[in-house]
Write a structure and sequence with these properties.
seven-stranded parallel beta sheet, binds nicotinamide-adenine-dinucleotide, alpha/beta, single chain, Rossmann fold, 13 strands, binds uridine-5'-diphosphate
Amino acid sequence: MHLSKRILVTGGAGFLGSFLCERLLAEGNDVVCLDNYFTGTKKNIAELLDNKNFELMRHDVTFPLYIEVDEIYNLACPASPIHYQLDPVQTTKTTVHGAINMLGLAKRVKAKILQASTSEVYGDPLEHPQTEAYWGNVNPIGLRSCYDEGKRCAETLFFDYHRQHKLNIKVVRIFNTYGPRMHPNDGRVVSNFIVQALKSEPITVYGDGMQTRSFCYVDDMIESFVRMMQTDDTVTGPINVGNPREFTIKHLAELVIKLTGSKSKIVYKTLPSDDPMQRKPDISRAKEFLNWDPQVRLEEGLIPTIEYFENILSTK
Ligand code: NAD
Ligand code: UDP
């Protein structure tokens, strides 16, 4: 028998959060979606508002919260470099104070808590592919530090709450994920390239385009979160979740041009500072502990993503 749970999703009106709320509702749970709408939007969860098991709460995770829940997915935090660099001090507060508040809540109500950590904890990695045992190569004072160091400190807090207070924690390190509902102006590479291609504007490749990333489709990612939450108490992570197929950014640009049938040309721009040169997850742990292996190939996942952006551009 499936017992329904009361689940809090912070950052639930964002890209990943909205898909997660949808999935948890579909499984018959009560879902409380918390968001301050910094990068998320009510449009992302508009279709869920009529569901009697869904509750929307405007709240900023940097402030304490008291609510009775069984599980917490802590996703609240801007994810794209443009957004998290807009107000870097706030980004560190969101990651660190947000983690303290949500961990405090989990402790009080004895909830299980999952942290959406990131491959950015590895910085510009000197080990390739990245395993969870790698400690990373992170600039503590650069433009990305508010996010990278904030997320690293959040991991520290999770593991200290686990050791000190016996909290049931789950930490996943998310690698670049894409899909419908990404913010069209958030500056991430997949959304940027698709929007540029659809508008017949130049495709802006930063640097020489030889830097690599490994792109995971949103459905695969959400599956990994749910599986992680369901693991037994001994599994804390960190566990890398991402698609290990690695591509150069130039290849991605060419693929987007091909799939959209665009006449856009590639232009090369300056590489932003501290931009990692390579990124690819070693997902052996995810395979072992979650029995999870991403199924959606980049070419397949880009199609619904392109359709989504076609729709929103045509309704604008
Ligand atoms: P997103 O920007 O679409 O979603 C983040 C959500 O958090 C938004 O709805 C935003 O309004 C909300 N938020 C931000 N600050 C908040 C605050 N102080 N209080 C309450 N809500 C707040 O980004 P996303 O891609 O959905 O990312 C979700 C999580 O996954 C983030 O924690 C991000 O760091 C992590 N992550 C994502 C990726 C990726 O490729 N998408 C990669 C690594 C890690
Ligand atoms: N990038 C690019 N053109 C763009 C946006 C991003 O060439 O219009 C590059 C960026 O420099 C980085 C990669 O694409 O090397 C991934 O960038 P994104 O911001 O999506 O994620 P992250 O750097 O956090 O992995």
